[in-house]
Design brief:
Blueprint (H helix, E strand, L loop, with lengths): L6 H19 L2 H43 L9 H7 L5 E2 L9 E4 L11 E7 H4 L11 E7 L4 E8 L12 H5 L23 H22 L8
Antiparallel strand pairs: 1-2, 2-3, 3-4, 4-5
Length: 228
């Protein structure tokens, strides 16, 4: 069936007139009720939309938290040997916990000895300064620090540095930090030996050790207790 060019407009006009006629013939109360119902349904629709938007916002925020948590650099899940190396006299280590994340070393289990005091703290540099990278990414260093701000030792657990085998990997690199106070400069070429062709790796690892130890000291140590 074909329609004249003005057919659609005519149809709309007829529909409009019919609706207006119907409304005139209805009782005033029924017309008012119909518009009230329309208003209510519109309000319900708006309310439902707002609820959906609120739920979406909560979901996005929750997702953001999950993503943030998931960005933690994966580290050695069983560093027991490293912990014992950093605190040989410790008889008990807490799990990795707290804010910032850390292990706490005790001479004996504090659950069985209420008088037990911590010997020191152990932490991953990647948890404290996650954006400190060498040539090819973060250098995973486990740092031990006693309760006076003295480094008990460091362990380079993992790296992907091209010259790491003669820069951050040798024991000589880690041994430089043992006994240092967090108040010292930690300056490559000064109190820390520089290594040619691996300056980026050495500088990155040194900054990570220094900065993470100072963050932990500010969080857990008394300023008066920190030596030198």
């Amino acid at each position: 069936m074909t329609r004249s060019p003005g057919g659609t407009d005519n149809l709309r006009l007829v529909t409009k007139l019919r609706l207006e006629t119907d409304e005139k013939n209805e009782a005033p109360g029924s017309v008012k009720l119909r518009y009230q119902l329309r208003g209510r349904s519109g309000g319900r629709a708006r309310e439902a939309t707002l609820k959906k938007l609120a739920a979406l916002a909560v979901l996005l925020c929750s997702g953001g938290i999950v993503v943030f948590g998931a960005t933690r650099t994966f580290t050695n899940p069983k560093p027991d040997g490293h912990l014992k190396k950093l605190f040989p006299k410790a008889g008990f280590f807490t799990p990795l916990t707290g804010e910032p994340l850390h292990f706490t070393a005790y001479a004996s289990d504090p659950h069985g000895n209420a008088a037990a005091t911590p010997l020191g703290l152990v932490f991953w540099t990647t948890d404290l300064v996650p954006y400190e990278h060498g040539y090819h990414g973060p250098i995973h260093v486990l740092v031990g620090m006693d309760m006076t701000g003295i480094i008990s030792g460091v362990v380079v657990d993992y790296h992907s540095e091209p010259y790491g085998y003669f820069s951050v990997e040798p024991d000589a690199f880690a041994e430089q930090f043992k006994g240092k106070s967090i108040r010292e400069p930690f300056k490559v070429g000064g109190d820390i030996d520089a290594v040619s062709r691996a300056s980026l790796s050495i500088n990155s690892a040194t900054r990570a050790i220094r900065d993470s130890a100072r963050v932990m000291a500010r969080q857990f140590l008394s300023p008066d207790a920190v030596k030198r």
